[in-house]
Every structure is written in C-alpha cells, then in structure tokens.
Amino acid sequence: MIIDAHYHLEERMVPLDALLAQMNRSSVGRIALIAALQAPFESGVLAEKAALLMRSFLNSPLHNLGLSLYRTMVTREGNFSMLGRLYPIYDKPDNDNVARTMRTYPDRFYGWVAVNPRTADPCAEVGKWAGQPGWIGVKAHPFWHRYPVALLDDVAGYCSERGLPLLLHLGTDEGQGDFRYLPERHPRLKIVFAHAGVPVYGALWEYARDKPNVFVDLSSWTYVGKRERLGAVKALGVRRCLFGTDGPYLHSDFGQMVQAIQELPLPDRDKECILAGNFLELTGAT
Fold first, then answer.
1. Nearest to 169 by CA among 238, 114, 110, 91
2. What is the pTM of this model?
3. Of 104, 117, 216, 256, which sees the most CB atoms within 10 A?
4. Alpha-carbon distance 89 to 38, whole Å?
5. Mean pLDDT by 10 residues, the chain (286 residues)
6. Separation CA 47–CA 275 (nearest Å)
7. What are the structural domains, with CATH classification, of the chain?
C-alpha cells in the first residue's frame, strides 16, 4: 500500500470522486488530509518554472537569494502571492471538512488537525479531535500564518505527552524558520518537517542527523526534487523520510511522484518504508 502523508483537502480544485479515481489509478491506498490553507489557484508553466528556480537557489550557494524569493510568497497582509496575483490564506483551517470526509471514507483517509496559534488555542483544537478515529497528528504552518515557531510550544508539549506527531512547514522571518526550537524544548516530540525541510534543507538535515524523533516528508513537486530527496535520505536515513505530494497545489499526478521514489537508488524494502511503512510506524495508524 502507498500512503500520501501530506495532501490538502480542496474540493474546488479536485473533487472527491476525482481524487479517489486518481488514488485508484496510482495504487495510493490512503491519504492523510490537511484542511485547505489558501484559496484555489492555477499555477501555469511560468509559475512552476519560477518555483523551481527558487528551489534551486535555496539548495545552493545562492541560498539567500532563494530565501528572498521564498519570502515573497506571503504578503504582510496575509495573502499567498504568485507572480503578482494574490490569493487569501485561511487563518482558520476547516478541520470539520476533513472530519466529514474521513467519516464518509474511513478506509481511505486519515487527518492532520490543522492549527493556527494566532487565531485559536491550538491545544483546544487538537483536544477536540484527538482520539477520534482517523486523526493521526497535528499540522502547523508558521510561514503561511506568519508566527514564530515558539508559539507552538504548548501544543508541541501536548503532542509530545500523547505521542502525536507534529507536521511543520517552516518560514523565514521572526522565528518562523527556527527548526531547532521545538526539538530542543521537546526532545520526545515526533516532529516532521514538511517538504524535506524547506527552506533550509541541508542545515536542518545536518542538525537532525542524531535526533531520531526528527523526520521529513518528501512532498511537493515544487519544493522537493531529486537532489532534495537524495539529500534527505542520505542525511537522515530511509526510516525518517515519508512520501507525500502536497496535492492538489502545484501537483503533478500521484503516479509521477510515486515513480520519483521508485527511482531512488534504494532496495525495494527501503522504498516501501518511505511509501507507507514509516508513516504507519510514526503515527500508529492502521
């Protein structure tokens, strides 16, 4: 079985029936859903090329230039910006929609509880859902929601005490990119850095080499290419890398992204760990 550990539920871009059909075509058995975090958008070839250029800068000696491009993706007003077009970022993720979808298709979907400490108590939000069937962890986005990682201290403690993994998408400014803070404060916390640790990549991998509770997902055609997949696997080991897509945003089809894992120079058993086994072990899901 293949499990996508990182997919946003956005039915205006991909309706559920179409999503299920895509999963069936690509042998994706389960998806861990995250509430939509911004308004739907269409990328286009130019936007995709710009995103790939940003990634190449981020993982190169031109890292600071890449960071400058990365910062432009979120405006001070809280919009997602792509080539000058603005799309609202949702400050209050709709976990209820994820819950409804899991209840309808309990054998196909898990759920991450999306939190934003700037708008609501994250511990209360997690407490609302934790323990109910299908919920496997917590998702936070300091970059999109514009807050320092330190604001997640309480919910990180909550997750650590209960064995829940925390999935985190780092930003850059004002503590948004502090990848050391939570592992140092909560050494038992199972933390997954989204998109191979964008925007810091190698610095995070080097820091996490000897920290067995630090993981990455390899989701996103934009943030993660062959170089990032190989780098993360080499630095952290096969057991700490999870398959994901970041669909439906800037999303190639499942088949291509599964193939990217299949093409890694690894034994089949290691590829199976990335595609499903690591997720199941991390979350305790069945």
1. 114
2. 0.96
3. 216
4. 4
5. 97 96 95 96 80 92 94 93 91 97 98 97 97 97 97 98 98 93 98 98 97 97 93 98 92 86 97 98 95
6. 28
7. 2-38+93-283 (3.20.20.140)
